[in-house]
Amino acid sequence: MSIKNxxxxxxxxxxxxxxxxxxxxxxxxxIGGGIAGILFPLxxxxxxxxxxxxxxxxxxxxxxxxxFANNSVLAAKMGELFGGLQSWHLLTGTGxxxxxxxxxxxxTGVYGKALLQKS
Length: 119
What we know:
The chain contains 5 helices and no strands. By secondary structure, the protein is an all-alpha fold.
């Protein structure tokens, strides 16, 4: 495992995942993770952790940007719907979903590459 792999994998996940905010489907983060998992040789644990971190920070950052852009009005109303959650709970939940999606995408890419190389 090299530092170049640990720096390049999040860059690919964030770059491809950011395309979803330009009009492509929300699940582009998983596609970016799959591409990164194929391109960068990492162990399964390191690949999932790195993909999770990249997806978490991408989705949390975008959610925080939009939350602050509307003075937390939408997050406050959504928090009321979900039993009084605060806006940071919703931001963290959004980040966790993005991280899980990216981490599983990277893991799929790593295992898919290993499966094809055995054939």
